[in-house]
Specification:
The structure is a homodimer of 352-residue chains. Chain A is α/β, with parallel strands linked by helices and 352 residues long. In chain A, 47% of the residues lie in helices and 15% in strands. The structure holds a DNA duplex (30 and 30 nucleotides).
DNA sequence: TGCGGGTCGGTAAAGGTTTACCCGCATGCT
DNA sequence: AGCATGCGGGTAAACCTTTACCGACCCGCA
């Protein structure tokens, strides 16, 4: 059950034999780690080419103690925000010729543990983690951080010291609440929160900040998914809600909310205003385009690259980098700046 | 620039020393590769536990010639269909304790080549590829297939023999065209195609089949992205199109089409009917819910697992597995079965 | 001419495992 | 009692690199 002919694996010895030199010379030519006489160099190069030599990175990593790769562990690839982060981390690191290997923990602590263990066993040079759970992932993150430079991304596990790169969720949510307050005050319509259970630091921080701004507002909690957004909205409508501003803590949830609103014949933003968080690709294509909070993803992933590269040189224990980027509010049609009617006009101008 | 204290790496020798046995015994205990006297076994186990031993998988893989991992290379993680495939491949393989490492080629042939080279260098036990380009990826795929069991997924590179798992795109598109033809014939409205350039086999097959069914229909071609779907629809509307059935070859494109239609004030499905392909998670939340073609993703990834496992036992060159699953048509509101008015009633029944 | 130093090739060790092979011991059978 | 057998432990080789170290050679300078 394999190809027509699996080529016999060719190693550095084979190349050396064919070129009539020692393996050391081959290695030096291939890695340019020391000058080699032009004639030998050519012989080695063509031998390698003819044999189709492909270095065994296991041997190299074993010897060097470096694998030229990092691991990236996300809780769920189907969450488009994490997919975007993954793509962008790959992009940032590809510039430095460091392979990025992505794993999904599938929102499961045991899988998260296993994946981290495998990454460590394969001696990745760095580990970027988006922990599943604010408290329960702590042990997993700690295990990683003891062996390799570890950067938590977007979410932060409690009580474990590592580098962290994310956005200022409290600031982001404050942008939303103050944006939302104007309309809410004028219309005297309620503000409700639909978001993930605060079991991840980002959900936690966003919910906290919302609760401070609207202490008595109703809150419906669930998971980071389309389905939950939809169910939550169904429930609210079933409870008799007919007009409100719905603040969510993730675009995917907001999309579910909007879908449910539509399917019940409500108009957005006239009946319900909706806001998201993250600014994933789809959100500006939602109908209506989603007001949301944008995170500077490429700056974030560039910072991660910097941390990893810095960890290579200075292996003395410097402090931990903790970087929270300021997110920005992107006001779109799902929750217009002032009153819905004006916004509809703006939309018509824009679209027509 | 590291943790408080990076623990010194503990190897099998350390465990052996602490347990007062030889490294062979340690290895045998840890892998249960041969029976060991209970007393020694316990000593080894507790020694390993106390030292926090974590096997170096590089050493193991080097020795065994197997890494207990496979690579999965996708063209673009931000395409939700590929994200779903990736997630599901991970799930299937996690049951067999084989790590799945995901890389994104970012739709770039050179990155694709590099990623495959790295996977091979790290001696993955199998490689699952979704080639970027039907013709230009051939060399990359071939390189992989010469070294390791290679399965092409969803897309098939021309003129290179490997295993293949995908869906019957022609059948899927025929389901769409015959579904669409009824309405089109009645309403005498045009049918247009909006889809990706036929540079991948799936795009190719879908376009082909559509063209056979509607030879004179207009076609707008671009990339597998929201943005393209939107631009294409903008262009069509600018050209004066006011009512039509828009057949797309991917849900993400369909979502772009719908968004653009909405933003110009058209009603869907009354003015424009729209169909997608793939049935990604968002599509049933689209407004209106998207008619699309569903691929049996979990069956597909289970098949991949079977192929890889089979390749472990029988390393004699058996033939290649080529499996095309029959997709199914999922009719939703974006393109109702018969006439739009009836469909709106159905929607109301369903939603209310 | 003799010697110091620089250049560059080779030899061998090291990195962490698994496993083929060997050996000692105990057991059981004749 | 003697021998075959088998169980279970250890030693060392092998997997594929990189690289420290050595040594040969050449050049230039005194």
């Amino acid at each position: 059950m394999a190809g027509s002919q699996m080529l016999p694996k060719v190693g550095i010895h084979d190349v050396a034999a064919r070129a009539g030199v020692s393996i050391a010379t081959v290695s030096r030519v291939l890695n340019q780690s020391r000058p080699v006489a032009p004639e030998l160099r050519d012989r080695v190069m063509s031998a390698a080419l003819e044999l189709g030599y492909n270095a065994n990175l296991l041997g190299r990593a074993l010897r060097q103690g470096r694998s030229h790769s990092i691991g990236l562990l996300v809780p769920d690839l189907e969450n488009p925000f994490f997919a975007t982060l993954a793509q962008q981390v790959s992009r940032s690191f590809s510039r430095s010729n460091i392979d990025v290997y992505i794993c999904s923990a599938d929102n499961d602590l045991e899988l998260e543990r296993r994946a981290i263990g495998s990454f460590l066993g394969r001696r990745v040079d760095g580990l970027v983690l988006i922990p599943c759970d604010e408290t329960l992932s702590a042990a997993n993150v700690r295990m990683a951080s003891l062996s390799v430079v570890t950067i938590q991304l977007d979410r932060l596990a409690k009580a474990v010291k590592t580098h962290y790169v994310g956005c200022d969720n409290r600031h982001g949510m404050r942008l939303v609440t103050s944006h939302v307050r104007e309309v809410a005050d004028l219309s005297r319509q309620p503000v409700v929160f639909v978001g993930a259970h605060p079991t991840s630091s980002s959900a936690h921080e966003r919910l906290d900040t919302f609760a401070k701004a609207f202490p008595s507002a109703q809150r419906v909690l669930g998971s980071f998914s389309f389905e939950f957004g939809r169910e939550a909205m169904e429930r609210l409508i079933r409870q008799g809600l007919r007009a409100a501003t719905v603040v969510t803590d993730a675009d995917i949830i907001a999309l579910g909310v909007i879908a449910s609103g539509h399917s019940h014949g409500f108009a957005i933003p006239e009946d319900f205003r909706v806001t998201g968080f993250d600014d994933v690709g789809v959100s500006f294509l939602a109908q209506p385009a989603l007001t949301t909070v944008r995170q500077p993803v490429d700056q974030m992933t560039d910072t991660i690259l910097d941390i990893v590269l810095a960890s290579f040189d200075a292996d003395g224990q410097t402090g931990y980098v903790v970087k929270r980027f300021k997110p920005t509010l992107v006001v779109r049609d799902s929750s217009p700046a002032h009153d819905p009617v004006a916004a509809v006009d703006a939309d018509a101008r824009d679209g027509g």
